[in-house]
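Hey, I was hoping to borrow your eyes for a little while. No rush at all, and the record is pasted right below:
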Amino acid sequence: MAARRLFGATRTWAGWRPRGLLDPVPPGRHLARDYAKRPVIKGGKGGKGGVVSDALKDPEVCTDPVRLITYAMGVNIYKEGQDVVLKPDAEYPEWLFQMNVGPPKKLEELDPETREYWRLLRKHNIWRHNRLSKNQKF
């Protein structure tokens, strides 16, 4: 709306046409009127009527070694409730203990006969192609 007033043209069903005389603007007024207003915060800082918000806090760190061994700390995503109790190792699947939780293996460390090797090789080639094609115009 403000752009129409500034440029003096409007869009009609027949196309663009010049607009008639602009509305007079009183001194001290701006032509741009449709900007968003600042949000009004009721109550201000610490006054009455303000919304009480819960401040985000870091989770408390557990230092009890017995609790750390018997419970999965930090797994509970709910505000209320207990942490998950750990079961004996025999109740978990075997592949869980064979997972690589360290840094990823390098291409030289993998066996070329495995699918993991070829997936990593493809990923490296895609990264190389992306780096090389970054500098090309077309």
Summary: The two ends are 40 Å apart (CA to CA). Residues 62 and 68 are 7 Å apart (CA to CA). The mean pLDDT is 77. The chain has three helices and four strands.
